[in-house]
From TrEMBL:
EC number(s) stated in the UniProt entry for this protein: 3.6.4.13
Family as reported in the entry's similarity comment: Belongs to the DEAD box helicase family. DEAH subfamily. PRP2 sub-subfamily.
Protein name: RNA helicase
Gene Ontology cellular-component annotations: catalytic step 2 spliceosome
Domain Helicase ATP-binding: 48-211
Keywords assigned by UniProt, alphabetized: ATP-binding, Helicase, Hydrolase, mRNA processing, mRNA splicing, Nucleotide-binding, Spliceosome
Coiled coil segments of this chain: none
Enzyme class: hydrolase
Gene Ontology biological process terms from the UniProt entry: mRNA processing; RNA splicing
The Helicase C-terminal domain, residue ranges: 234-409
MF (Gene Ontology): ATP binding; hydrolase activity; RNA binding; RNA helicase activity
Residues of the full protein shown: 368 to 1044 of 1044
Organism expressing this protein natively: Microthlaspi erraticum
Amino acid sequence: KESVMAGENYEDDMHAKKSEDAAEKTALEELQEVRKSLPIYNYREQLLKAVEEHQVLVIVGETGSGKTTQIPQYLHEAGYTKRGKVGCTQPRRVAAMSVAARVAQEMGVKLGHEVGYSIRFEDCTSDKTILKYMTDGMLLRELLGEPDLASYSVVIVDEAHERTLSTDILFGLVKDIARFRPDLKLLISSATMDAEKFSDYFDSAPIFSFPGRRYPVEMNFTSAPEADYMDAAIVTVLTIHVREPLGDILVFLTGQEEIESAEEILKQRIRGFGTKIRELIICPIYANLPSELQAKIFEPTPEGARKVVLATNIAETSLTIDGIKYVVDPGFSKMKSYNPKTGMESLLITPISKASASQRAGRAGRTSAGKCYRLYTAFNYNNDLEENTVPEVQRTNLASVVLALKSLGIHDLINFDFMDPPPAEALVKALELLFALGALNKLGELTKAGRRMAEFPLDPMLSKMIVVSDKYKCSDEIISIAAMLSIGGTIFYRPKDKQVHADNARMNFNTGNVGDHIALLKVYSSWKETNYSTQWCYENYIQVKSMKRARDIRDQLEGLLERVEIEISSNLNDMDVIRKSIVAGFFPHTAKLQKTGSYRTVKHPQTVHIHPNSGLAQVVPRWVVYHELVLTSKEYMRQVTELKPEWLIELAPHYYQLKDVEEAATKMPKGAGKAAI
Ligand code: ADP
Ligand code: MG
């Protein structure tokens, strides 16, 4: 009987397989048709000829015309992958993942095999990979191990107009590599912006530009400034939904929190309409959205329904969503800003540039005529918006790239071939910080600690914290903390109807007012003790996804420890050594309590506050070290731990003098500043 059964199953399987194959084939064929319908397809031969004839080529084409998904495939079809990989950089993680998934699908291969992606803490490639999408930051890191990019035949620096810090640094490095590797092809690809500038920079490289499809977009401005752009955006979406013909809506918001709250409000209002209106499908998209939900934005909208995509800047040029007819643009984005005088960095909600506004509007006219609703006045647009977004290199902390460049053997940073140079004081500040962290010596040369730090794909302050933990024999705990700090999303959630429970669960990790870093460690180790239980996460109002990501990151950090020959050692009995390791990395981020109850940063005095979500918000210790500053209604310190002021002199003698901590040390009441554990 068994064999008969098996036989039957076999036939069933075969049958299923055949029809699956057939379905797959038609799906593949369909995808090939779609490929041929993209604007770039008509220029395939011309493009390949230009690549053959020139070593460096600047490629410019409308967003959505097929640059990112098609050019690597064309190069593969033309045989370039026989000599090495084709690498294509993206400024955003989500774009790298999503585009790689799409291309794998178009080529009918499994993602991670011939087509893969590599982003920080996640390598989805294999020995087979010939088309590799990656973040610009990852290619920069690859250069540390392979300075001539020998395994690549073509490098595409894509979305070049975004001018991220890593892209700008890559420009200088790949330009140099191209000089001594005549066999390497270099393509700089961008949306319709800045082509001349790229060409000038790359020694007058030819510009290959091809027309995309662009349908007219009707522009609407508000007649008076909006007091609350979120509310205005929601009202606009609903008005479009009720009044305008079918077609999907794209709304640009500044970040995950805004998107989540907009989603919530929209759902509520839609419920209020009952069945009087058509179905409105809400799709959020932002950097930390789990990948299975990312795919949802690309699913075709069902007949009769409308889709509204709530996106960050990612949908400006990195991702193209088909079917968008209406764009709602409040005119803001979240931007990093850096004050080189104080060394303070924060994320600010900032008005966008005209170039950005034009890209956003363009998303409405890709497949047919569309409409763009700008939630600002024409006067605002004409008089207040900058022409172009300032490149990141001019508004960020440079410590991380300076460390990377130093490990690449590039010492003369002032004369590095920047397309737009950073402010000199920002470079000096970065060198000073790396010196204070012990990564560079007085001559500006990399030290042993600096070499170790450069191995970690982390901010130098985090790397330093890890490297120092070797001395204190607590690397096991410190990499857990570093992983938890690197998740880049929320760990705790607070459902509206269970806020009290959630807050209580959260406070459980804060026993003894130990500070947020130790609380994060407790969360991680408690989860580990339950053998990484999902149930445990639910019970404690903790995001399972975030924890899994923390575990992945931690695994990688553990691997890197081995590489820099730091032993994994655990020192759970002495919380002071854990806090000392934190301070050894984050000493520039210290603040002291003021009489007013607020804090002042020690080195470059600025008023700051403990974030209300911090376990120390009610404790108000005298001295704290913090992970980062976020500016909302006030300048808040997020992830805060208490420290002893004398540690600053012990751990950062090049940075703090006695006078910085003295006054407090003498005036301190007995026992204050002692570890609260
Ligand atoms: P460009 O780089 O010129 O902006 P792309 O190559 O990214 O253009 O996009 C070409 C087409 O591929 C677009 O129509 C876009 O909608 C589609 N596409 C890209 N990624 C995906 C995806 N993950 N799923 C479905 N379609 C996608
Ligand atoms: Mg693209």
